[in-house]
Amino acid sequence: MLPKRKPLRLSTYDYTNNGLYFVTICTKGKAHILGRLENQKMKFTLAGHIVNRTICDMGNQYDAVSIIQYVIMPNHVHLVVALQGNKNRSDMNLSQFINLLKGRISRKYGSSLWQRGFYEHVVRNEADLFRIMEYIENNPLQWELDEER
Length: 149
Hints:
This protein is of the alpha+beta class and 149 residues long. It has three helices and six strands, in the order βββαββαβα. The protein has a four-stranded antiparallel sheet with strand order 4-5-1-6, with helices on both faces. Strands 2-3 form a two-stranded antiparallel ribbon.
């Protein structure tokens, strides 16, 4: 029997709302299968290349979803995702988009790469967005300091 998991989503928040979301997706067992960092630059494995191509493709494929920024690390991916649609609601919710993304990557790779679920943070304002974007940009630089990597 699987252990009881804490809910990761805000129970009072509607994830079909237009807005910006900071998302982290981890590989299964946090395995370093997407690449390795050399001189603070990612060198992708086959899996990393598939992730990169799929993120780019999906960011251009759906009118209601834009990928503002992302970084692929050896064992996780960070994304800033914008949901936008008509009348303050997107046609796709965040979970649907992330599940599509993870599923496409796994199908292209030939097996599942991902842990169950994902972490998200609702971007609350411009200062929050800039802090997140700086974190994403600096993530490769901070890799050596990350004790949980």
